[in-house]
Write a structure and sequence with these properties.
With 146 residues, the protein is of the alpha+beta class. The protein has helices at residues 2-36, 53-65, 91-100, 112-117, and strands spanning 42-47, 70-74, 79-84. The protein folds into two domains: 1-38; 42-142, Alpha-Beta Plaits (2-Layer Sandwich), CATH 3.30.70. Bound molecules: copper (II) ion (CU).
Length: 146
């Protein structure tokens, strides 16, 4: 009789114990989920016309100066992929900056002065046909490295 009582109380105790652990794990999980939401990064890909490796550096520099955390321009596809914190910048701001550096893109057309200031081989075909003029593809190795 006596031992049965002990067994029962041990059982009851262990149930309480495991419930307590379960509750702790739950709160730990919800806390983690709440903090993980804070840093947001948005990634967008859009068309930017250009010719070569020199264009690539100018376009990517304009995008990062406009607040992009990372920028990668694909010379073959004429596509710029940017990732950024939407609290700090936007696709619109980045596209404007890229246009101001001389490169037509889906959002904005570059000012003529900016386009004319580009290196001769970087003066891409403005007709909009992607990849239509890779006139300085062979000069990529000679382009100045910054
Ligand atoms: Cu170029």
């Amino acid at each position: 009789m006596y031992s049965a009582k002990i067994v029962f109380s041990i059982l009851a105790l262990s149930v309480c114990f495991f419930n307590a652990i379960g509750a702790q794990q739950m709160t730990g999980l919800t806390k983690k989920a709440a903090t993980a939401v804070t840093p947001t990064t948005q990634t967008e890909t859009f068309q930017v016309l250009g010719n070569c490796g020199m264009c690539k550096r100018t376009i990517e520099k304009a995008a990062t100066q406009a607040g992009a955390a990372s920028a990668n321009w694909d010379v073959e596809k004429d596509l710029l992929t940017v990732s950024f914190d939407p609290a700090k910048t936007s696709v619109d701001v980045i596209q404007k900056a890229v246009a101001r550096s001389g490169y037509d893109n889906v959002g904005y057309k570059a000012p003529d002065e900016a386009y004319n200031d580009l290196h001769g081989c970087c003066q891409y075909d403005r007709s909009g046909a992607p990849g239509s003029a890779k006139s300085c593809g062979m000069m990529e190795d000679e382009a100045p490295k910054n």
